């Protein structure tokens, strides 16, 4: 994927720098077009699952590309993952800002929009961690 300078509306690193932490802070990029964002996300997922070429002396640094979520959706994803792990569901993911979950490889995909959806999908009372 080719990204030109004019494709980025804004680029920044969130939070304050910490001299004791040697890990670089994440980089957030706001793009001009949603199609470009989708292409970058798709390409990064493909690259993530592609093995390094054998015999290569240099390995490329790992780059993680994720969607930026609202606070509510971030907490909803966290709570969904906790419940899915507890009940041994296999898949939890985000696409276009929406949270999805699936029990096994061939089972039906469920969309999680609210805390009530977590209750209905996972049954009984979920873990004590309200979204808001």
Automatic annotation (TrEMBL):
Query: Can you give the residue ranges of the FP protein C-terminal domain?
Result: 70-120
Taxonomy of origin reads: Eukaryota, Metazoa, Ecdysozoa, Arthropoda, Hexapoda
Q: Which domain of life is it from?
A: Eukaryota
Concerning InterPro entries, the annotation shows: FP_C
Pfam families given for it?
Baculo_FP_2nd (PF25298)
* Protein name in the entry: FP protein C-terminal domain-containing protein
